Amino acid sequence: MSAAPGPSPGSGRPQSAFLGFSVRRHGDSLIITPSKDAVKRIRHRLRSEMQALLGQSITVVLRRLSPIVRGWSAYYPVVSSKTFSALDSHVWTLTHKWAKRTHPYWSQRRRARTPPPMDKISLAPAARQKGLCPLCGQALIVGAEYEPESPREWIGWFDAMKKRLHKHHFAYRRDGGSDEVKNLRLVRSECHQQLHARDGSNKQQIL
């Protein structure tokens, strides 16, 4: 027992520390959480490890940090959601700083890269529709019914299929409709052709 039982600061509830755990009573319940000292130690260790890993590859970083994080999480599995959330944020901050210092020109290269093949006007309704054609309910592209992992996946999928997709206006331009995103939706080319065949219009806009 690293500290004698006593009230927690400002709460008046009995509290003690034992083997890195903070133990306190709340009414009839016994609450056990990682102690403040234990959290400080892991934060300091992670910070020191990341500083020592500057210049190393991401593979080396993961191999070094993974057993530390997993071991700590396995030792403190009880009533630790808030602590884990705070540590997750701490690790993200450390890795972000590591990336900026290890790859200082990455952000410049990213800004200078070729613009994505799909313009924002097309990408917005695609994301809003979750990759599905509103006319037939089928996927605009294979796999689009699943939530994408990143914007890059949306771009890759739609770049491969953009010739098969058309922009359709909710309110036709001939009736005063605009080209604003809110008046557009993406549909499969076959569905678009069938729709205009039914209403006697052959107007369509390919991506």
Describe this structure in words.
With 207 residues, the chain is of the alpha+beta class. It has 2 domains: 37-107, no CATH class; 120-206, no CATH class. The protein has 7 helices and 7 strands. It has helices at 36-52, 58-75, 81-102, 106-112, 120-128, 151-161, 189-199, and strands at 3-7, 14-18, 21-26, 29-34, 165-169, 184-188, 205-206. The strands form 2 sheets. It has a 4-stranded antiparallel sheet. The protein has a 3-stranded antiparallel sheet with strand order 6-5-7. A hairpin with a 2-residue loop joins strand 2 (14-18) and strand 3. Helix 1 (36-52) packs antiparallel against helix 2 (58-75). The longest helix is centred in the middle third of the chain and has 22 residues, at 81-102. The protein starts with a strand and ends with a strand. Mean pLDDT is 74; it is low at 1-6.
How would you sum up this structure in a few lines?
The protein has helices at 36-52, 58-75, 81-102, 106-112, 120-128, 151-161, 189-199; strands spanning 3-7, 14-18, 21-26, 29-34, 165-169, 184-188, 205-206. The chain has 207 residues and is an alpha+beta fold. The protein has 2 domains: 37-107, no CATH class; 120-206, no CATH class.
